[in-house]
């Protein structure tokens, strides 16, 4: 079929090729679950014809054939495949077929058809709420909130109003307007319950929606009670403002929030289906925490003990002991703590509470011993299973925590290649000992991993993988990723691929491109090239939100680093093409010249870098670091570094003179 932007191009027979699941659209317009399941997997054939101005759309499937005839711009009546009576109208605008329908409940939907540049018919199905969601997701948050509020005021369809209230609550919550979000969600629940006659009369879909809203409502109110009225969460930022309440009013407000959270948790917990047992357990433990915080200790203890009996997690015993402690039932709390320590001898907080117990009894010897164990086990990460509590390890830890830490790594831990020593190195990295101490620990781990094989190599690799997954600092990710890349650890690639587009923080970069280059897995080539040619957007010009200022230069830094990382794959033709094209782009030209100079050793690329310097411009710090790492490859690299250093000195001298 010839390409044509006019409506005439839609005439003909069209076979289904592919498309997104339309389940969400069907659910939005009120199609029941049975109807949605029936529609899933059907691949219809469409036949579009026109005679004397009357258009016909015939939809053929293996189940049935449906026909719609209409005159453009004239309202028609129709019955949908699932039996809903609707009124509709089709308009042809700018080469597109725009079909709008509304059912007897006021639920509106729109289907748009057109022919793309590949001569394929494209179809978009959307409702008002879906369109508003797209507006919100594009960053136009205030407009979306205004639009959804207007929809609530103007719609006559209860189901649509319910969904709109739910969306409004979600928008407001993301914008940090938690009180208003809570009000919207409460309105959504009330509307749903009133229209159906109560929770017991919900169908399956309504019950799921009710459960989801009730859970998020309980969680939001619990967080408000815990943090206070002056704290709000706007997307990924936490905002603090002075409370307008008096201290007593604030405490009463928090108490009301906790009580409301408990109410909603209790409402939802018995309605969660039996086949969602994990969700039910999670919500029960959240309820227990809300009960604990609101002072309902006996109920909380009952839930914690049931949870421990179900999965054996000692955390529940500790929480139960804490409840007893808060009730001044100290002996009962101590008994539970001893049971906990028997279950898990590494549970640090149990030793701390036991130390308090013996301090109150004036048993200083026992209190000191429990304090010592607490300090030891609170430092040793859970994934380190070969560091036992004994005098030698306690003394070693004291050395690590002193100003002799670096010397300890260079001598004691480097000389000892046992699993215990390796875990001590990993624990140092886990706790993020800044500077030389952390860097040396990662260096020894990498060297040990490179030299090992079999089970020993897997042991070291698993420790480093734990550091990435359980990190307490971006620097930990950076160090562990670099060490694993040096080991050529196969499982690392997928993690780096996921982290690459997130590596946008200019102040605290993870240096994922460096790790990909160091790993040398050729699957990294398209990832790095895509990041260079299609950089990740960190800001939306239409957004009314404030993006983190730390991301402002992150994309530029990431692109330059990706160019430098391509040096590991300089034999690839596509890589060469990208680098050659890059020398014409101001943002990456230095990096591309540097990689081409180092990898080809061609004089013309060194000359271009030298020209940048002789024109009085110092090289980008990442380019300088790259050249320093390759300085042994060429005298020309050393000359460039000297020129750059001389220029830096000259600029510093000028700044000093200007200051004087």
Automatic annotation (TrEMBL):
SMART domains, per the entry: TPR (SM00028)
PROSITE patterns: TPR
GO MF terms, alphabetically ordered: lipid binding
Record carries keyword RNA-binding: no
Pfam family, one: TPR_19
Keyword terms, alphabetized: TPR repeat
Keyword Cell division: no
Highest taxon of the lineage: Eukaryota
CDD domains: FABP
InterPro entries named among the record's database cross-references: ARM-like (IPR011989), ARM-type_fold (IPR016024), Calycin (IPR012674), Fatty_acid-bd (IPR000463), ILBP (IPR031259), TPR-like_helical_dom_sf (IPR011990), TPR_rpt (IPR019734)
Family: Belongs to the calycin superfamily. Fatty-acid binding protein (FABP) family.
Protein name, UniProt field: Uncharacterized protein
Organism the protein comes from: Adineta steineri
């Amino acid at each position: 079929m010839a390409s044509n932007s006019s409506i005439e191009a839609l005439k003909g027979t069209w076979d289904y090729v592919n498309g997104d699941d339309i389940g969400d659209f069907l659910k939005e317009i009120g199609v029941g679950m049975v109807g949605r399941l029936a529609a899933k997997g059907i691949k219809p054939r469409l036949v579009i014809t026109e005679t004397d101005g009357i258009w016909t759309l015939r939809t053929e499937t293996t189940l049935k054939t449906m026909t719609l005839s209409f005159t453009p711009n004239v309202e028609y009546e129709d019955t949908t495949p699932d039996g809903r009576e609707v009124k509709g109208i089709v308009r042809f605008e700018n080469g597109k077929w725009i079909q709008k329908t509304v059912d007897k409940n006021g639920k509106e939907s729109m289907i748009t058809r057109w022919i793309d540049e590949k001569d394929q018919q494209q179809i978009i199905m959307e409702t008002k709420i879906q369109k508003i969601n797209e507006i919100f997701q594009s960053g136009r948050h205030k407009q979306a909130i205004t639009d959804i509020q207007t929809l609530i005021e103007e719609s006559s369809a209860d189901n649509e109003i319910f969904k709109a209230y739910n969306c409004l609550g979600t928008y407001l919550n993301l914008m940090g307007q938690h009180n208003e979000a809570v009000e919207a969600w409460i309105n959504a629940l009330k509307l749903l319950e009133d229209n159906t006659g109560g929770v017991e009369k919900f169908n399956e879909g309504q019950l799921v929606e009710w459960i989801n809203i009730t859970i998020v409502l309980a969680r939001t109110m619990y967080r408000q009670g815990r943090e206070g009225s002056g704290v709000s969460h706007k997307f990924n930022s936490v905002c603090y403002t002075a409370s307008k309440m008096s201290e007593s009013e604030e405490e009463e407000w928090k108490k009301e929030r906790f009580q409301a959270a408990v109410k909603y948790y209790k409402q939802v917990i018995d309605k969660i289906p039996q086949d969602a047992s994990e969700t039910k357990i999670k919500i029960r433990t959240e309820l227990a925490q809300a009960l604990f915080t609101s002072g309902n200790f006996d109920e909380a203890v009952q839930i914690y003990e049931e949870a421990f009996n179900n999965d054996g997690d000692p955390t529940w015993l500790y929480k139960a002991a804490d409840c007893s402690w808060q009730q001044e039932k100290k002996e009962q709390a101590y008994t539970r703590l001893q049971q906990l320590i028997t279950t898990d001898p590494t549970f640090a907080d149990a030793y701390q509470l036991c130390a308090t117990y013996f301090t109150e009894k004036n048993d200083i010897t026992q209190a000191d011993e429990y304090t010592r164990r607490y300090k030891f086990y609170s430092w040793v990460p859970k994934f380190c299973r070969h560091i036992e509590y004994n005098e030698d390890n306690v003394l070693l830890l004291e050395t690590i925590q002193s100003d002799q830490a670096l010397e300890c790594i260079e001598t004691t831990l480097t000389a000892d290649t046992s699993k215990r020593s390796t875990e001590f190195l990993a624990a140092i990295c886990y706790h993020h000992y800044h500077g030389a101490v952390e860097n040396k620990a990662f260096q020894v781990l990498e060297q040990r991993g490179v030299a090992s094989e079999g089970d020993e190599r897997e042991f070291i690799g698993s420790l480093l993988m734990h550091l990435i997954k359980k990190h307490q600092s971006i620097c930990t990710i950076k160090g562990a990723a670099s060490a694993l890349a040096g080991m050529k650890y196969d499982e690392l690639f997928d993690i780096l691929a996921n982290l690459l587009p997130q590596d946008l923080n200019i102040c605290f970069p993870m240096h994922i491109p460096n790790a990909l280059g160091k790993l040398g897995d050729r699957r990294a080539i398209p990832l790095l090239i895509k990041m260079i040619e299609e950089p990740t957007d960190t800001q939306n010009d239409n957004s009314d939100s404030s993006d983190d200022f730390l991301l402002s230069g992150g994309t530029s830094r990431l692109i330059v680093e990706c160019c430098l990382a391509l040096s590991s794959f300089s034999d690839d033709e596509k890589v060469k093409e990208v680098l050659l094209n890059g020398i014409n782009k101001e943002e990456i030209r230095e990096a591309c010249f540097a990689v081409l100079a180092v990898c080809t050793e061609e004089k013309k690329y060194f000359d271009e870098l030298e020209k940048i310097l002789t024109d009085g411009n110092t090289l980008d710090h990442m380019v300088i670091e790259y050249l320093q790492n390759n300085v042994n490859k060429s005298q020309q690299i050393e000359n460039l570094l000297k020129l750059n250093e001389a220029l830096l000195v000259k600029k510093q001298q000028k700044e000093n003179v200007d200051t004087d």
